[in-house]
Amino acid sequence: MAAKNETAVVKQLEPAEHETLALNEAAIDASRRNLAQGAMTPHYGPWKKDVIQLLNDSLATELVCVLRYKRHHFTAQGLASPKIAEEFLVHANEESGHADRLAKRIVQLGGEPDFSPDSLSQRSHAAYDESPDLKAMIKANLIAERVAIETYSQIISLIGDKDSTTRRLLEDILSDEQEHAEELKGWLASD
């Protein structure tokens, strides 16, 4: 079969209509003022209150998880319970660390972290649990971790590129929650 040595004619396509990539000079100029706002520049503008609310609800979730894990740590009984009870305490401490990081970010955004015990359970995405047996405790904690995973995944999608610092914080917390869920799943399977 003979090869064709013809020069292909390539027609240059006109670029589709698109928005020109350009910096917002007015926002850059505004960032030179209001120095008391620290890292809060005009870019955070319309989403700041929404992000703070999402973070406060996540803070409530983490605090309820701390309380649930602590209760389970102290009330777990059975042959496997000492090892699992210790892991409940580890999880409680990690959830407490998440809560601290969320509260710090809320303050960085100019908000106030809501630690009010009166509304914690209403604002939390995860439920508190008083299960009496170890298997029910593990199941309740797995459900709560799965709820946290879904919630953080949705918040990360909502935030997108609107607040990259908060997004990275939530991605880091999400990773911990996924590890917790896998560990709890393993405990349920070994029962």
Please write the string of helix (H) and strand (E) elements.
HHHHHH
- Helix run count: 6
State the distance separating the first and last CA atoms.
68 Å
Residue-averaged pLDDT, rounded? 88
Shape: elongated
Q: Would you give an account of this structure?
A:
- This protein has 191 residues and is mainly α.
- 62% of the residues lie in helices and 0% in strands.
- Helix 2 (48-75) runs antiparallel to helix 3, helix 2 (48-75) packs antiparallel against helix 5 and helix 5 packs antiparallel against helix 6 (164-189).
- The longest helix has 28 residues, at 48-75.
- It starts with 24 loop residues before the first helix and ends with a helix.
- The model has no long low-confidence stretch (mean pLDDT 88).
Keywords:
single chain, 191 residues, mainly alpha, 62% helix, 0% strand, elongated
Topology record:
Blueprint: H1 25-30, H2 48-75, H3 81-108, H4 120-123, H5 134-159, H6 164-189
Produce a short descriptive summary.
By secondary structure, the chain is mainly alpha-helical. It has helices at residues 25-30, 48-75, 81-108, 120-123, 134-159, 164-189.
